[in-house]
Amino acid sequence: MSSDLYRLTATEVSQKIKAGEISVQDYATSLLNRIAARDEAVQAWAYLDPAYVLEQAKALDAIPQAERGPLHGIAIAVKDVIFTKDMPTQFNSPIYANNAPALDAGSITILRKAGALILGKTTTTEFAATTVGPKTRNPHDPNRTPGGSSSGSGAAVGDFQAPLGLGTQTGGSTIRPGSYNGIYAFKPTWNAITREGQKIYALILDTLGLYARSISDLELLADTFAIFDDVPPPTNFTLQGAKFALLKTMVWPSIGPGASAALDKATSLLRAHGASVEEISLPEKFNDLPTWHATVLASEGRTAFLPEYAIAKDQISPWLVGHVENCDKISRKAQVEAFDNISFARPEVDELLGKYDAVLTPSVPDEAPLGIEKTGNAAFCLIWTALHTPVINIPGFAGENGMPIGISLVAPRYHDRRLLAVSKVVGEVFEKEGGWERKV
Amino acid sequence: MSSDLYRLTATEVSQKIKAGEISVQDYATSLLNRIAARDEAVQAWAYLDPAYVLEQAKALDAIPQAERGPLHGIAIAVKDVIFTKDMPTQFNSPIYANNAPALDAGSITILRKAGALILGKTTTTEFAATTVGPKTRNPHDPNRTPGGSSSGSGAAVGDFQAPLGLGTQTGGSTIRPGSYNGIYAFKPTWNAITREGQKIYALILDTLGLYARSISDLELLADTFAIFDDVPPPTNFTLQGAKFALLKTMVWPSIGPGASAALDKATSLLRAHGASVEEISLPEKFNDLPTWHATVLASEGRTAFLPEYAIAKDQISPWLVGHVENCDKISRKAQVEAFDNISFARPEVDELLGKYDAVLTPSVPDEAPLGIEKTGNAAFCLIWTALHTPVINIPGFAGENGMPIGISLVAPRYHDRRLLAVSKVVGEVFEKEGGWERKV
């Protein structure tokens, strides 16, 4: 039914458009209807102009078959810290209210060229740099946060308002909303996708992130962004005989009952399907990784927010003022040591991760907390952002209140495609047998 | 004489404006006259609108004394890979001809807030990423290159068309033009100044660079950009008893007679003034630093130029097409190893550098070569860009043809202010006794 098109994945929609079964306008209309019906409850959008979306859809329909790109007509929600030349980019900052330079981020240039329909801009915490939630509500429970800072993209994809979304991650801003909204979230290897035109918080940490409701859709995006491993991923990966590890990491005391139970279940499911799951730990010398992350974050933030501090320090979060004023008195020596210590850890952790088909680790402590004022705890994501490894949140589990909980799969740097291939098989099992029921 | 104002340094002009001796309009007029007289010979500008410059100058003159910033009325030339909201930003790329989004780079926001007069946009090689020279000629000999990729900023400051300039460095793009144009060039510690709104080539290498004709002017800019060391720099540094080292590096075979003689003279001068100069070398395990730099450059360029490749691959340099297509077949394994090996080298090299007041190393092989088609050799700069250390080019020496040659002083990361303080004293000696005579 044409009115249900919004429920399809990008891959499914793409097939229908290619086959001439539906037009991009049909599809866009279905999405816009879904958004109109759900926007009051979810409020995922910082900017969305339905008339302009239809105008773009019409233009896409006018492109001859032979000139169409691989994402032709596929809609994507864009986090409002990524420049779009035809829509405002406001960073959830009063300094940038109605800010609309005629500039596309590098990622948007690539997506447009591939034929994507840029649907609108989604909410974010201020500059994707604080944990103060925007107006957005979790689609699965309006009394709960969708997470952050990629709040709107996570909620929009979770609520079937868009099949694909762009987020960013400096701490846990892509993976956490992925878990809270019950969707697949992919933080690729650092700098595997250009960050041109994406607001800077910390250069060595910031990573563009991708949302979808299927791994095939993430693979479509990985193709578009030319993310390739040295070795093509396995096409026949099966759980029978596969080798996983469970890594609780040094922040395990932050775990809640929801994620703990989800990890137990995940482990049982993998074993039941014939895989081995070994419990591993990181060398103790890496116990300070979260502290090193915090040090690098604050000291790179000191550089990043000096412009806003200079022009309007009363209009930026105290958290960011603190970075610029270096309120934690982080010395340059400490900054450089943290930066170097993380660098030393990367190849060693890669080597450990490389021994397995993938390593399981929590995405979050538990299901999305009540309230939309705070976006939740990023503790389990931080170290992977610093280590530059690809991470994929796989949905499928439920918390005490029936809210979604995901598990992270991690692989060594630039093993993104292998991780996607493994995640596809794992995701099928977790989604089917993990126990979470999607109700939206 | 008001007509000679263009010859002053930023610090000198600032004092005159503060004292009410001259207006910003007087100063801007003098610079515009200089530019009008010299532009045909030098061609440093990608965009400059004299009427708009005067309009800005008038607006600055209207600001009450109490509200004026530390750079009030000081003109600065901006490399055309850095966004300016009121001028085009064209990257010397046909893809971006007349490109003019209403966006200021973070550095420009800070400069404007400090009261700087954004004079115009200066020429660059394509995306600051190739060695194919733009139209610009060396002010000291129009038959020679001003270097690159910061060609226009280097030439403009060298030719007294602007007291200050912004450049960038991914290989040797700030330091090389500094040497070729006979000016001070400062590549600060990586990420000490925000790169927001500066075109990306390689995230882990790209650094904003600063040009001036005096160290005091660079200190003024360092203040503006809030670059601080852990320990305030010495205020009474003298060469008597100071400790320097001479580091020829693994690329010493690239040296020419000009820079070799300049280094000999520099060493003699420092010794004659009571300093010690010890010859040191890097551990052999770092001999591959230039190769690691090349590997990281190409593989990060693969990510950076995918957007331009996607939309107009026939309009970008074959060099950049080669990055995107990975024509050198650099594996992800090699990419990650190069990235990590550079990371491992940083603290060790810092420790070595930290034993001296500063370390001398060549800026370039020799004086600016004949022809403007190629921008010269960056061999001596690459490793410092990769190592993230601050580098300052100090002018004062001359090649066989009377063209300027500078020497680099290097210090550990985030010892930028100490390096400036040392360079001030060293620069006075090199400029006075080094033998180069400025003729423009």
UniProtKB/TrEMBL annotation, chains A, B:
Region Disordered: start-end pairs: 130-154
Q: Which residues belong to any copy of the Amidase domain?
A: 29-420
Which PANTHER family does the UniProt entry name for this protein?
A: AMIDASE, AMIDASE FAMILY PROTEIN (AFU_ORTHOLOGUE AFUA_6G14410)
State the protein's name. Answer: Amidase signature enzyme
